[in-house]
Design a protein that fits this description.
The chain is mainly beta. Among the domains are: 146 residues, no CATH class; 81 residues, no CATH class. Helices cover 8% and strands 42% of the residues. It is built from three helices and 40 strands. The strands form six sheets. The chain has a 27-stranded parallel sheet that branches. Strands 11-14-12-13 form a four-stranded antiparallel sheet, with no helix packed on it. The termini are far apart. The N terminus is likely disordered.
Length: 551
C-alpha cells in the first residue's frame, strides 16, 4: 500500500511542478517506490529515474528529518557521475518534506547528461565540493538544480486592463500572489545598436495580497489598455534555505555565439535564502559560449543571496544583430522577472577591474534590487528595474548600468567604472524617477586617464524604444569624492552629464522622440582630487535648462 501511496503523492507533486512554471516540466520523472529491498537508484531505458526506499528506511529518514546524498549511494569521489543520486535524494526529500545534507569532504561530479535536481526543502551543501562539467552537455538549457514551488498558478480571466500605480486589482486571491501580466500586442525595450532587436512584449510583475491590494513598494509601472495574459502564482510563505557548497564549473568549449549555457542553480520559488555558497570556473580558453548566470533568479520574490563568492566569466566576441562584432554578455548572477532581490556581502574570485571578464550581474524586468556590502564588477538593470539600492559596496570596471524608474540610491560606496552611473543607451538612457548619490567615492576608469562624467548615456531622439525616455527628474549628490588625479592633459574637470547627443549643437536640432531632461541637480560637498570644479556637461545646449543648486 505504501508503494502506491508514494506514487500518488509523487504524481501530484510532479504535476504541480510542471504547472507552476507554465512551461516544460522542471525535472525528469522520478518514480519513488517503497518495497522491501535496500535503497536503490536506477534508470530505465527511457532515462526515467527510479528510487526505491524500504518502509523501514522511510521511517528512519522521517524520524531523522534529513537525508544525505550518501544515503542514496552517491560516491562523492569526484569521478563517478552522481547527478542521478542527487536528483533522487531531493525527489525523496521533497515527497517527505525532509531537509537534504551533502557530505562534508565529498566531491560530487556532475557530467553533461540532462538531469535536474529539484529542491523544495532546506538544503545544506556544507563543505562538499561539486564539479559541473560542461565540456560535453546534452542540454545546455537544463539547470543542474532548480529551486521550485509546489504551488499552482492560475489565470485571472476577469482583469482586462491595469493602470500605472493602481493600488488594488478587483479579485480575491487565496493569499499573497505574484502577478505577471503581458500585452503581446505592444512592444517595448526595442533595442538600439549592435544588438538591435524588435523589442519585448509589454510586461509587468507585482505582488497582491488576498484582497487584491498591490504592494506599492513594487508598484505597477505601466498602463495596460489590454491584456493578453495575466497569471497569479501563490507565494510560499516559509523561508527555504540553501547553505554552503563549493561549486566549480568546467567551462564549455563551444563556438562563441549567442547560445547561452544555463547549467546552474535556478531559483523559481519565493522566500529563498542562499548563504555561504562559492562558485569557481575552470578551463576557459580562447573561445566559448556565454553563460546565463550560475545563480539564476526568476519569476519569484523575496530572495537573498548572502556571504557568497562568485566568479566573472571570460568575455568572448561574436557577430551581433547589426552584422558587426560585439562582445557577448556572460553572467554568474542573473535576475529576471523578480521582486525584492538582495545580494548581501557578496564578492568575486577574479579582479573586479579586469576587463577580460564580463560584468557579473545581468537583470531584466525587476523591482527592488539591492547590493549591500558587495565587491563586484558590475550592477546592471538591462530591460529595466523599478527601484534599486547600492550601499556599502565597491563596483569595478563595468560600474553601475541602469535603466528604469523609481528611486536609484547609491550610498557609502566606491565606483571604479568609466562613469558613476551609466544610463544604458541601447534602451534609451531612461530613468523615470530620482537618483541619489550619498557618501561615495568615484575613481573614473579605475584611475586611467579619462575625462570624467558622473552620469553617462546617449540619446539621439531618432529611435523609438517603445516608451517615452526620461533622465532622472531630480539628482541629489551629497558628500562625493571624485578621484580624478589620473586625468588627461586637456582635462577641464568632471562633468555631471556626459555629452548624450553630440549632434545637438543648437536649438534647431529636432528630436523625433523627445527626451525628458533632468529638472534639477542638488550638490553638497562634492570634491575633486584635481581641484577642478564640477561642470554640467560638454553639451551646454542639451542641458541648458537644468537647474544646479549648491548647498
Amino acid at each position: 500500500m505504501m508503494k502506491y501511496t508514494n506514487l500518488m503523492f509523487l504524481f501530484l507533486n510532479s504535476m504541480l511542478v510542471a504547472q507552476a512554471q507554465n512551461k516544460a516540466p522542471l525535472e525528469n520523472t522520478v518514480v519513488i517506490t517503497s518495497e522491501e529491498q535496500k535503497i536503490r537508484v536506477y534508470t530505465r531505458d527511457n532515462e526515467e529515474l527510479h528510487v526505491n526506499v524500504s518502509p523501514k528506511d522511510v521511517l528512519k529518514f522521517k524520524a531523522a528529518g534529513t537525508v544525505r546524498y550518501s544515503d542514496f549511494g552517491a560516491k562523492g569521489d569526484g569521478k563517478a557521475d552522481d547527478i542521478d543520486v542527487i536528483a533522487a535524494t531531493h525527489a525523496f526529500a521533497n515527497l517527505h518534506r525532509l531537509s537534504v545534507k551533502a557530505d562534508d569532504g565529498a566531491t560530487y561530479y556532475i557530467g553533461g547528461k540532462e538531469r535536474r535536481a529539484v529542491i523544495r526543502t532546506d538544503t545544506d551543501f556544507g563543505a562538499a565540493a561539486f564539479i559541473i562539467d560542461d565540456t560535453e552537455v546534452k542540454n545546455r538549457n537544463a539547470s543542474v538544480f532548480t529551486v521550485s514551488s509546489g504551488l499552482k498558478p492560475f489565470k485571472l480571466e476577469t482583469i482586462a486592463s491595469l493602470k500605472r500605480n493602481q493600488k488594488k486589482i478587483n479579485v480575491s486571491l487565496p493569499g499573497p500572489c505574484l502577478i505577471t501580466v503581458t500585452d503581446s500586442n505592444v512592444k517595448q525595450y526595442i533595442r538600439f545598436g549592435l544588438n538591435q532587436n524588435n523589442g519585448s512584449s509589454k510586461t509587468d510583475i507585482f505582488v497582491a495580497d488576498k484582497n487584491g491590494k498591490v504592494d506599492m513598494k513594487a508598484p505597477i509601472i505601466w498602463d495596460f489598455e489590454q491584456i493578453t495574459d495575466i497569471t497569479a502564482l501563490p507565494i510560499d510563505e516559509h523561508l527555504l534555505k540553501i547553505t554552503g557548497g563549493h561549486f566549480t564549473t568546467i567551462a564549455n568549449k563551444d563556438e562563441s555565439k549567442y547560445a547561452y549555457y544555463n547549467r546552474n542553480i535556478a531559483i523559481r520559488r519565493s522566500h529563498v535564502l542562499v548563504e555561504g555558497l562559492q562558485h569557481h570556473i575552470k578551463g576557459e580558453g580562447d573561445h566559448g559560449a556565454p553563460y546565463g548566470g550560475f545563480i539564476n533568479i526568476g519569476e519569484c520574490a523575496y530572495v537573498t543571496v548572502k556571504n557568497t563568492i562568485l566568479t566573472g566569466h571570460r568575455t568572448y566576441s561574436t557577430i551581433g544583430a547589426a552584422g558587426k562584432p560585439v562582445t557577448m554578455g556572460t553572467y554568474d548572477l542573473s535576475v529576471n522577472r523578480a521582486l525584492n532581490i538582495s545580494f548581501v556581502n557578496c564578492s568575486q574570485t577574479n579582479d573586479i577591474n579586469d576587463n577580460k571578464y564580463w560584468g557579473i550581474l545581468g537583470s531584466n524586468f525587476c523591482k527592488n534590487l539591492l547590493y549591500d556590502g558587495c565587491t563586484l564588477s558590475r550592477f546592471d538593470a538591462h530591460q529595466g528595474v523599478a527601484n534599486a539600492t547600492i550601499r556599502n559596496s565597491t563596483l569595478g570596471h563595468m560600474g553601475i548600468n541602469a535603466i528604469g524608474s523609481g528611486l536609484l540610491t547609491i550610498e557609502n560606496s566606491t565606483v571604479r567604472g568609466r562613469s558613476f552611473v551609466n544610463l544604458r543607451p541601447d534602451y534609451g538612457s531612461t530613468w523615470q524617477g530620482e537618483l541619489v548619490i550619498r557618501n561615495c567615492i568615484f575613481v573614473p576608469a579605475n584611475g586611467k586617464p579619462i575625462s570624467a562624467s558622473l552620469i553617462s548615456g546617449s540619446y539621439s531622439g531618432q529611435h523609438n524604444f517603445g516608451y517615452m525616455c526620461y533622465m532622472p527628474e531630480r539628482i541629489t549628490i551629497e558628500n562625493l569624492r571624485i578621484d580624478d588625479s589620473g586625468h588627461p592633459d586637456n582635462y577641464h574637470g568632471p562633468a555631471i552629464f556626459a555629452n548624450f547627443n553630440p549632434e545637438m549643437t543648437d536649438n534647431t536640432y529636432q528630436e523625433k522622440f523627445p527626451y525628458v531632461k533632468t529638472r534639477e541637480v542638488m550638490l553638497r560637498n562634492v570634491t575633486t582630487a584635481s581641484n577642478k570644479a564640477l561642470r554640467i556637461s560638454d553639451n551646454q545646449v542639451m542641458f541648458k535648462d537644468v537647474k544646479v543648486k549648491i548647498n
